[in-house]
Structure formats: structure tokens, C-alpha cells
Amino acid sequence: MTETRKERRPEPEEGYTLLVCSRIDVLAAEPYADALLDRGIPLHVVCSAQIAEAVTERFPGLAGEPILLEELDRRTRPIRLVHNLLCALLEGESPSRNMRRRFLRERAAKSFKIRLALALGRWFPKLPAHRLNHRLGRWLGRWFANPFPTRQVLAVSHVTKPHLLCARGLDVITLNESWDHPGGKCAGYPSRAVIAWNADVADDWQRFQGAEETWVGIPVKLAYAYESPPLASTVERVAMYAVGASTTMPDWYDEEQALIEALCVATREAGWKLVVKPRPSGPQPGLDDFASRHPHVAVARTTSSLGARDYYLDDEYNRQRLEQLAECSLVINTMTTFCLDAVCAGVPVIQLDLRGSDAYPSLGIAQRNYHLERYLLGDEALCLRPPVGESLVETLAGFLSDPDNRPFDFRDRIRSWIVPGVPSERRIAEVVEHLISRLSP
């Protein structure tokens, strides 16, 4: 005799399930999870085995032991394979997708599966992300019951196993961890609501990924900078450049190494010092070589490299970043989020515009990403772009020798866009009220 669905699977529990795929996701979720626990809302967590112990220590009031993401993925492997195939065949064009396809083409010679996926993809119609997210939930939900202990799921983007959120009966709220996620790759699941940094990023998510409701939270990973007193550096003629690429991005990495060399030469010609700040994660060999060849160049301290996503911006690392920013008078930026840290801390930023550059074509393509073009490069008058026939060394050295007010205007414009107009505690409380209102009475 066949069991009914109710007999096979217990009714969902009351409360929320928090889905975090990395330690940086934990950071994004902390204020909201803490507030839910303080209100007595049962909270379960699904996470990888690698961070389960840290999650348990960080949230001692959980409704139970963390549920391992690897175990849920193992049990739903056929659904994941179908999900990945549908995304590969149907996802529409975007800068993020185009770069992934370029990455796959470089590896196609060694993999029949990659060659087959690339070949098949040419014969299928493409869907924008918001339509594909909706259809994935509708198609897969027919065959896939809720694997979580609760119906309400708070998922931090990017979700590495998005097929889990396509199960039927879920009420998924996405906590948008970063400003670049809405316009990037397809989320891979339907969101009922999204919690974003501000109204603009919330609108971006609704436009590209789709959501029935948008709620404005706070940019958690930037709060350390804008909640501290603005830095009043007395240092002069010291520039900082934050590295954006790692060796996992071969084209970007090679070009950025050439770019850093150009910055070394330009700052030397202008009589400035240069501090090169590594990424907080990911392999970055060779940076010390710039300091050894250029006496005016130094490499900043950084946290341990634990992988592209498995890192955590703790209080000690944030303290180091503020100390480093206090020791420079200008940040030079191409495409990193660190420029947002700088403006929040009150440091002026000169934004390089490399779009269409013959010397740095891959970096120029990377700057075509939606979030960079809209928010960092949206006002071209505040950016530094080498004129036709002039090298970056000449342009930057000329600017540093006789700087104008662009870095200060850029700082003020971006800082006003990021910093909440109300206290962070109020924004968090408002979001938590939305979350609680979705629970059954």
C-alpha cells in the first residue's frame, strides 16, 4: 500500500530555516538571526560541515544541531542534476554568464560533458533570470517535497545548492549578501521576498531575479566602516590599491598584474607611495615581488586565505582594514567592493574606467557588469579614464601630480548611497517584523 505524502513526511515545524553556504553568509545573517532568536522564534540552520561547528558556537539558541548541506544535496542529487542542466540550457545572456561560458570553453577540450552542454545550449531558447527562477520552482516543485524542517526559509545569496529551494510549499526569503548578486548569474530558485542593502539594490533584485516583495535592510559587511567615526587621515601622497582578481581568474589576474605594475610606475613618477592590499580570500602569489622591485611600494596585511567564499570578516580583520585606510590618503579602484569600505570610512577614491581599453580588455569587460556600470561608473565625470593615445601610467601620474576634487565627490556620492538614513537597529527591527508576520498565526 502506497503511503500518502503526509504519512511519509511530517508537517513543517513553526519558525525559520536559515540556509548559509559559507562563513561570509553567516556574517550577513547575524543581525537578523540574532533578532529572531531574541524574539523566541525557532531557528534551524542548514550549512556545510566545514562551518557547522562555527555556526553552533555563533548561534547557541538554535532549535537543533545544524543540518548538513552535503547530506541534503546527497539525498536530492537527481534533482540537482536536472536543475543544473536546465540552468545550463536555458539561462539568458548576462556579463556573468558570458564570463562563465568563456571559462567553460577553455576547459571543453578536456571534458566531454562540458562540450556536450555547450553544444546543446545553442539549440534552446534563453530565459531571463526572473522567468527561469520561477519556472525552476514550478517544474521541480512537482517532484520535490520540502527537505527543510520549516516552510519558511531565509537563504543568503549566493546559494551553492539552489535546487533545494525549488521544493514545493516553500516560502523563500532571500537575504541579498552583496550588491553584485542581483545582476549576476541566475539565482536558480524563486524568491517570495528579498532583503537588500537599500532600495536600489532591492529594485535590482526584483528586476533581474524576481521577488513578490522587497524589504530594505542594511549592508552588514560595511557597517563596521560607516558606524565608526570617519577617518581623518593626516597622511599625504599615499595611495592604496585593492586587488580584485586571483589566479582562479586567469585573464583578469594577468591583466591586473600588469595594471599593478603600471600603478607602481605612475605613483613613483608622481612622488607617491603605493600600498597593495590583497583580497581577503583566494590565491594571490607574486604581490611581494612588486614591493621588492619598487622601494615605494608595500603590501598590506590580510587574513588567512581559505578559499574564494570560505572567509569571515571578523572584528580583528575589520580593525586592520580601518588602520590601513587611516594610513593612506587615496584609494585607487577598478572593480572591488573594497572601494565601498573606503568611502564608508571617509577615504576619497579615484575610480579607474577601463571600459574599451586596449591595454586591459578583460578588466574593461569585467567593468561592464551591471552593478559596476550603474553604481561606480555611472557618473563618468567622477572617474579617471585614459584618453585615446595616452597610457594609464601617463594619465594616473598626471592626476596624482595635480589631483582635483573627483575622489572626494565620488566618496560623498557613493557613501550617501550606502549609509542607511535611519539607525541600523531600526532597519533590522523592521525586517524582522516582516519575517515574523509571515509565520502562521
Protein described:
The chain is α/β, with parallel strands linked by helices. It has two domains: 10-92 and 127-219 and 422-437, 3-Deoxy-D-manno-octulosonic-acid transferase, N-terminal domain (Rossmann fold, 3-Layer(aba) Sandwich); 225-418, 3-Layer(aba) Sandwich (Rossmann fold). Helix content is 44%, strand content 14%. Strands 3-2-1-4-5-6-7 form a seven-stranded parallel β-sheet, with helices on both faces. Strands 10-9-8-11-12-13 form a six-stranded parallel β-sheet, with helices on both faces. The longest helix has 21 residues, at 250-270. The two termini are 35 Å apart. Residues 1-7 have low confidence and may be disordered.
Number of E strands: 13
Which structural class is indicated by helix and strand composition? alpha/beta
Number of discrete domains = 2
Give the low-pLDDT segments: 1-7
> Number of helical segments?
19
The radius of gyration computed from the alpha-carbon positions, rounded to a whole number of angstroms, is 23 Å
Sheet with the most strands, sense and barrel status: 7 strands, parallel
What is the C-level CATH assignment of the largest domain? Alpha Beta
Strand order of the largest sheet: 3-2-1-4-5-6-7
Distance between the termini: 35 Å
- In round numbers, the mean pLDDT is 88
β-strand amount: 5-15%
Please bin the fraction of helical residues: 40-55%
Which CATH-level-2 architecture of the largest domain?
Answer: 3-Layer(aba) Sandwich
Shape: globular
